[in-house]
Write a structure and sequence with these properties.
The complex is a heterodimer of chains A (354) and B (153).
Chain A: H1 2-13, E1 43-47, H2 89-94, E2 100-102, E3 110-112, E4 118-121, E5 128-137, E6 141-152, E7 158-161, E8 170-172, E9 175-181, E10 188-189, H3 195-199, E11 205-215, E12 241-252, E13 258-269, E14 272-278, H4 282-286, E15 310-313, E16 317-320, H5 322-331, E17 344-347
Chain B: H1 2-6, H2 9-20, E1 26-30, E2 37-43, E3 54-60, E4 71-74, H3 104-116, H4 126-134, H5 136-150
Antiparallel strand pairs in B: 1-2, 2-3, 3-4
Classes of the chains: A mainly beta (354), B alpha+beta (153).
């Protein structure tokens, strides 16, 4: 309690000199059950608390600062991905109620589609567990799979296997909807591990981790050579790598088969790690156009006129336009959808592709 | 229509949708001289003591709507533990549980549901609630009788 309080005081007094590595991960990340799981692949991200970076939120007491950030509209037909600027929770709770944060958008080149991550027994060798999933890559990328691995988030998300060598990376070209199926020799031999290790996680230990990595375009060394991924797989991530890491545990179903449960996903961009979070209701806002006439579901629930662009925190219900959101904060402290106490507002501008 | 032009877009939209896609067993139409005042009709839900009844209600959208709940009142006499003899309704979403994400349609659906599920533990009409708890069969019989007597449209 005492430590928590002193942290809070310091961040209040000295917010630009904030040291997020001492902050716990925002506990609300996993505290909110998905209200509606029909909104896949839309996320807000919160950077993990292990790097020094001044908070980049906008806005003031009553001011409403227009966002000058760059917004990225997504690649191919894939939905755009939105990220929230770093905002330690302790600060968020102290903010004046009517403050609205603005988002900046960063580009994520590799994305493992969470629902597709599966394990199955090898048909040739029933004691081997093989991982498969589908993913999108906007650039050539490499896939590496780790079983029973420990992450050192303070060391650029370095992944260390407990008692074995990592399997080599598998290279892919760029492309949407690619399939990864693990080779038998790299699968997990069940007779070499204890089932307890596969079914439980520690704070930084996970039964299954999948990392997609891509070297940033034009990343060269001082003497002009192209950058490469560091060996071995799981090495601390350098700045010139853009990565997405999926952390999962295994469960056993009633037939005794192993199933995957994804715990979280993080992306690594420009040397900063962000945790991906879904925003409920964003999909209707970004799909379709106003011209189709049927605008229920993407209009603000309050004025029923403006498009939704503001997400309520911490519950992440994207249900209002920014104007109504500000008005609401003068009237009530509850989310219109779930009545959870409002911590803050997050405005997300979506740039439509024409 | 002067009153119409000052009406918030939300109310206009809600009204249009209520008229074009009415909820089953519910009709609501705005009064000609006050577009914030609605004449409402709710059919008694099947398998409830109010089955076969036609209930008239009035619904008014206050100036603060949707930040404040609509004001709704039964005009037809009804024997229900959560509705008093003035037609006032004891329903949380009309009071402290109001949310601006709710609408006229959802409010009326909630009232329809309240007819299917009387809640004598949170009474507005104390005497009816008491009757309901002491002898539910008799209370239901009385509700049916009132439906036949007062709620035939």
């Amino acid at each position: 309690m005492g430590a928590g309080h002193s942290r809070r005081s310091r961040s209040q007094n000295d917010s630009n000199d904030h040291h997020p590595e001492q902050e716990p991960a925002p506990p609300h990340i996993n505290a909110v059950p998905p209200v509606n799981s029909n909104y896949p692949n839309q996320y807000a991200a919160q950077p993990q608390p292990y790097y020094n970076q001044a908070p980049q939120y906008y806005g003031g007491r009553r001011s409403y600062v227009p966002n000058n950030g760059h917004f990225y509209g997504g690649w191919g037909g894939a939905p755009p991905t939105h990220y929230m600027p770093f905002q330690p929770q302790q600060q968020m709770r102290q903010q004046v109620p009517e403050q609205t944060q603005r988002t900046s958008t960063i580009r994520n080149d590799v994305n493992l589609k969470k629902p597709t991550l599966k394990v199955r027994m090898s048909q040739e060798k029933p004691s081997a567990l093989l991982v498969s999933f589908s993913f999108d890559a906007a650039a050539p990328c490499s896939v590496s799979v780790f079983f029973n691995v420990t992450e050192d988030s303070a060391d650029s998300c370095k992944l260390t296997l407990v008692n074995s060598e990592p399997a080599p990376r598998v290279a892919f070209d760029k492309g949407l909807g690619q399939e990864f199926v693990q080779k038998l020799e790299h699968g997990l031999l069940l007779d070499t591990v204890s089932p307890a290790d596969l079914l439980s996680t520690g704070p930084e230990t996970f039964p299954l981790v999948v990392r997609l990595e891509t070297v940033k375009k034009d990343a060269t060394t001082e003497d002009g050579r192209e950058r490469e991924l560091l060996e071995p797989p799981g090495s601390p991530l350098p700045k010139w790598v853009q990565a997405q890491t999926t952390y999962a545990t295994l469960t056993k179903n009633s037939d005794g088969e192993y199933m995957v449960r994804v715990l979280k996903q993080k992306i690594w961009v420009e040397g900063v790690s962000y945790e991906l979070q879904e925003i409920y209701g964003i999909e209707q806002c970004t799909s379709g156009t106003a011209a189709t006439g049927d605008d229920t579901g993407k209009e603000c629930v309050i004025c029923m006129s403006e498009p939704r662009d503001t997400t309520v925190l911490p519950c992440r219900h994207m249900c209002m336009c920014s104007g109504c959101a500000r008005m609401l904060r003068h009237q009530t402290n509850r989310c219109p959808i779930c009545r959870t106490a409002v911590d803050g507002l997050l405005e997300i501008k979506v740039e439509r592709r024409t | 229509m002067a009153a119409n032009s000052q009406l918030p877009r939300r109310i206009i939209k809600e009204t249009q949708r209520l008229l074009s896609e009415p909820a089953p067993g519910i009709s609501a139409s705005p009064s000609e001289d006050n577009l914030r005042y609605f004449n409402v009709m709710i059919l008694g839900p099947t398998q409830s003591p109010y089955e076969g009844g036609v209930y008239k209600l009035e619904l008014f959208l206050p100036e603060e709507y949707p930040m404040a709940a609509p004001k709704v009142r039964f005009l037809t006499k009804i024997y229900h533990p959560n509705i008093d003899k003035l037609g006032r309704i004891c329903l949380d979403i009309l009071k402290d549980k109001w949310s601006p994400a709710l609408q006229i349609r959802t409010v009326l659906l909630s009232i329809q549901a309240l007819l299917s599920a009387p809640n004598p533990d949170d009474p507005l009409a104390e005497d009816i609630a008491k009757q309901w708890k002491e002898d539910e069969a008799k209370a239901v019989a009385t509700a049916k009788e009132w439906t036949r007597q007062y709620a035939q449209g």
